[in-house]
UniProtKB/TrEMBL annotation:
This is Pentatricopeptide repeat-containing protein. The lineage of its organism: Eukaryota, Viridiplantae, Streptophyta, Embryophyta, Tracheophyta. Belongs to the PPR family. PCMP-E subfamily. InterPro entries: PPR_At4g14850-like_plant, PPR_rpt, TPR-like_helical_dom_sf. Gene3D superfamilies: Tetratricopeptide repeat domain. GO terms for biological process: RNA modification; system development. PPR repeats lie at residues 191-225, 293-327, 394-428, 465-495, 496-530, 597-631, 632-666, 699-733, 801-835. GO terms for cellular component: mitochondrion. Pfam families: PPR, PPR_2. SUPFAM superfamilies: TPR-like. Keywords: Repeat. It comes from the Eukaryota. One of its GO terms (molecular function) is RNA binding.
Amino acid sequence: MLCGYRELLTACKGAYGLLQPSTEVFLRILFICRESGARVSALHLSAYSRRRGLENHFVIANYLVRLLVDTGCMLDAHQILDRSIVHSSLSWNILISGYVKHGNPHYAIGLYQRTQEIENVYFNSCTLVALLKACVTLSIYEKGTEVHSEIARMGLLEKNLFVNSCLVDMYAKFGLPIMAQEVFDKLVHRDVVIWTALIACLTEAEYAEKAIKCFERMQLEGISPDFKAFTSVLRACGKSRDIIKGHEVHVKVCEVGGSEGNVFIGSTLVDMYAKCGTLTYAHEVFDKLMVRNDVSWTTLIKGYIEVGFFEDAMNCFEQMQLEGVCPDSVTFICILNSCSSMFSEQKCLQVHAEIGRLQFRNDHRLGCALVEMYGRIGALQKAHEVFEYILVKDVDAWNALIAAYGTHGCVDDTVRCFKEMEAEGISPNLATYVSLSKAYIATEDINKATEVLAEIQVEDLSEVDAITGSSLIDAYAKCGLMEKATKVFDKLPSRNIVTWNTLITACVENGCNKEALCYFDQMQCEGVFPDAVTFICCLKACGNLVLPNRVNELYSQIKRLGLLDRDQVGNTLVLAFARCGLLNMAWSVFSNLLYHSEVSWTALIAGYAEHGLGEEALGFLEQMQQDGIYPDVFTFIHSLKACSDIGAVDKAEELFAEIERQGLLEESLILGNSLLDVYAKCGSLRKAQEVFDNLKAHDLVTWNTLIAAYAENGCGKDAVKCYEQMLVHGVTPDAITLVCVLKACGNIGARRMGYAIQGEIEKLGLVQRDHFVCSTLVDIYAKWGLLEEAQVIFDVLPFRDVVIWNTLMSAYGQYGRSGIVFGSFNKMLGDGIKPDPVTFVIVLSACRRAGLLLKSQTYFEVMSKGFGIYPMPDHHNCMVNLLGHAGDLDMAITIIRKMPYHPSLKVWHTFLKACRNCGSMEFGRLAFQDALHLML
């Protein structure tokens, strides 16, 4: 071959001289030059061909184009095609494929468009595949569909698996799994390559469950998976957290001997187990790998970080270096995230030093990641120092620094950086504005944050990535702009689990619990699988809405996905069950937790305390302390609530002593308010005042608690005095304050103060929107006998429930206006308001005062037969009183004996009084004996 090549070179030299070789010899020269890849010789032969007019020779022109394309002389190859008189399909194919191969896809598409004007140009499968790749590279979906049509026209859909695999891959890259599935379904023949392309496509598009089903169908059709197929389906199992199917695939991989020898599939197995939360299995697979490179190590590290095991991630990083495996930039970015999550400045500095030692100092992505890391842990000076070392300070670098300052509420520094960036000629982007708004949010300056967010145009978010989109949703939500947050979510081009979690969390934090659960359902319908964060938010929503059945559904999902071992999930589940009243389930979940922290104990104590089981809650507190776990602020808050519910003043005193010993009262105003509430509800007003006086700060809740304590314990003057002191301290009252003071005014007859409070209520617009305040006003005016004023307040109410009707009717009844009571009752029914037991006590009492026996009997019957309200002691007492006044003692004693419970002393007292008025010794003696028996 060497001798032949030299001979041809000699002939080639002759070609540059006077002698012209034959076509056959010249083609041979071109062929050997192409095989050798001699670029200079190719250019010489091209120049010779042009001088000798050989470019118009059909065969030589094709060979020349092929030679020049293969040696990278694309411009010269293109010029031959432009100068050629006859355009060969082969030359077009070679040139188009060449442009794609050499990284010029736009030229390839341009040539393809030129061929549309030329007849009889046919493309081979290699060219069509190259065009599909070019469309993907340039993101030209429309041109891709044109090439698809060309493939169909040439009949390649039925017979060329390679073309079809690329077609499926193209739609996958465009994020169109449905189109990829349609192409796939029309294929007559399917091999492992085309199946793998579809599985990978569905996995990438977040259709993980469909990808797993495709893998199963492939095997049913007798196609054995290869390592690429195994890799794709394992990634699908990881995304769907389907540990059962993932383990089945792992077994099959082991059967073909791929899990230990193949680093790539081994790393995918590690990633799958890590995403499913089974780090033990992930580490077992990793330990069995014959070769552990930077990819496999990074996969394991990332797995530990995703489940929050940051210490384990750091240990893996250190072990990786001990084994001589050098981390790459991806590894460092992962470990920087771990360092910041641990809030360990020492670890951050160690990793930073390692990055410098391995000469990664000029890596732009790592530089930005370092700034972000220092920003998260609050080392803002270090963040700025790293920023100064970044060679190219683009918008990403500036955004990292602005986010660092913004996260910690350093508004002045954030604004300064923002202005410096603009002065450098760098335009802010969406992420910049989001970080700037978060600086104001951190300082609770919501108005300024809203102004910054107003600068953002959310009409076109097609280029926004999921992370920036999630940050924007979070910013809008924290400003209370949920409508804009959902609008951003709807417009995002891609939404991952982080995006969904951000929206669901935002809904729960803004009280939109039903919407949060709707988004949870929608997320799963779109093929995105919930993680621990999702379940925690949805459990909170269910607890807030008291949806026991939904909590049970989530519990089943959590168990199936193996997430119950995550501390925060288990703790939230305990609290959700407890809030829904499923205390046995709360205890069951708590008992099965691997570790009982102060959070899990507090969740249990809070659940029992909320349902009035104070003794059980305090019992759990003692058990918690016996286990050596110290209560935190929230544990004390819920324990104090338990004390107030059961009146356990002594236990509250113990807790107070422990709180003071730990110095918690100075740190937590909420705890101080809770302690104040205990003494207030137990009637220990002196102790309540002492706690109030010892608190370093008083918020509205503190003042309200003390005012309510005085008002509810009959100390109206003290309540009013406390209210006046609150105003002196510049604290603005709310509806609760005004209601308490109104009650105090009503009890002590302080009309002038009452009128002043009414003026304050009207000024705040509470008459139109606060039902409880208006109900109290009606009640107070009724106590003062100002029935016309009470009626005026009642008439302006936009909404009237049974409580406010009862208040008004009771007021008229107390002043003997029985006719108005009956009229109001009929009006209430006309408004569609259903009466309650209290309503009938008021109506029957009005009948008693008016001496209307027949009317009272009608109401008594209608109460149970018409409204399903069974008579209670107060109803029976009214009837006994009426019958006694009417002298019908036989009917009165009949009613007493038909009562479904033992008559109370109050009923017998009423009957005895009637007997005395009627002079009936026989009935009186009988009543006295029964009453005496009840007392004994």
